[in-house]
Design brief:
Blueprint (H helix, E strand, L loop, with lengths): L6 H24 L6 H14 L16 E5 L2 E3 L14 E10 L2 E10 L6 H19 L7 H14 L9 E2 L5 E3 L6 E5 L21 E4 L2 E3 L5 E3 L6 E3 L5 E3 L2 E6 L2 E4 L7 H5 L12
Antiparallel strand pairs: 1-3, 2-11, 3-4, 5-9, 6-7, 6-8, 8-13, 9-12, 10-11, 13-14
Helix pairs in contact: 1-2, 3-4
């Protein structure tokens, strides 16, 4: 069952989304050479407390931190610690969430630590981020879930291959419904699986539908493995990856990117999509 939200509930999710945006801004600034991933987690904890919100990551399934910090070949769910010191040239994906009055926000971004990054890493992040926006632009009344998957995959497949390797769309993880819980039905693939075109796997998008759209792409394999901590997900071939995510709500007036400061207005305009007004005014 897909949870359909009222306008009032979407407004609460927008509040949570703005807390997530604040976490992103603060952790992006703090992701510098010499900082530990534990330092970034402390920054996120402070932002959540300042906004009177709660963490939806801390304690989730036993997860021990406020954010996920995934460095280089780590795709998702990296656990912040004092041993992981960021170095010049690293790439880090930070996944963060927040709860306001029981309603969730969830988003992720990829950042470059220091300078001197290879052009293919910069392009990997750009391709991953833009595929997310292509997916967000497909959140329209009358579309189905697979239209989002198709938009993400099609954007990635249209891009020139990197000088070495290829773009691997991670298969084991994807987007999800969000609302009164962080992870809800439906599961959203970042590619088209013809076996999931019918029934509950491919619902029609209607006002009140809320999703977290999050492509994860590597410079090689789409396959992953989980380390002994039961959380950290790495690529099986050691290639580096990128992860971008936004939470979005579909309303009668169009989509609202809940975790974007401007509701996604500027980026979605590039796709010919007009966002709905900010429910918080």
């Amino acid at each position: 069952m897909v949870e359909i939200k009222t306008p009032e509930q979407i407004a609460k999710m927008r509040e949570a989304g703005l807390v997530v945006a604040a976490i992103h801004a603060a952790t992006r600034e703090a992701a510098v050479p010499g900082a530990t991933t534990k330092d970034l987690d402390e920054v996120a904890r402070k932002v959540i407390a300042e906004h009177g919100a709660k963490s939806n990551f801390l304690g989730y399934g036993g997860f021990p931190a406020t954010i996920c910090t995934s460095v280089n070949e780590v795709v998702v769910h990296g656990i912040p610690d004092e041993k992981t010191v960021l170095k010049d040239g690293d790439v880090i994906s930070i996944d963060a969430g927040a709860i306001i009055d029981g309603w969730h926000g969830d988003a992720a971004f990829t950042a470059f630590v220091g300078s001197g990054h290879a052009p293919e890493l910069i392009e990997l992040s750009r391709v991953t981020e833009e595929s997310m926006w292509a997916g967000l632009a497909a959140v329209k009344k009358g579309n189905r879930l697979v239209d989002i998957s198709r938009a993400i995959e099609s954007y990635i497949r249209r891009q020139p291959r990197p000088p070495k390797g290829k773009y691997g769309i991670i298969e084991e993880y994807g987007g999800h419904g969000i609302g009164s819980e962080m992870h809800m039905d439906p599961h959203l693939l970042n590619y088209v699986d013809k076996r999931r075109l019918l029934g509950r796997h491919n619902p029609k998008l209607v006002p009140g539908f809320c999703l977290a759209i999050e492509p994860m792409v590597s410079l090689g394999t789409p396959r992953t493995e989980v380390l002994e901590d039961d959380w950290t997900v790495i690529t099986t071939d050691g290639t580096w990856s990128s992860h971008w995510e936004h939470s979005v709500a579909l309303t009668e007036a169009g989509p609202i990117v809940l975790t974007s400061p401007d509701c996604g207005k500027a980026k979605l305009a590039e796709y010919g999509v007009t966002t709905a007004p900010d429910p918080l005014g």
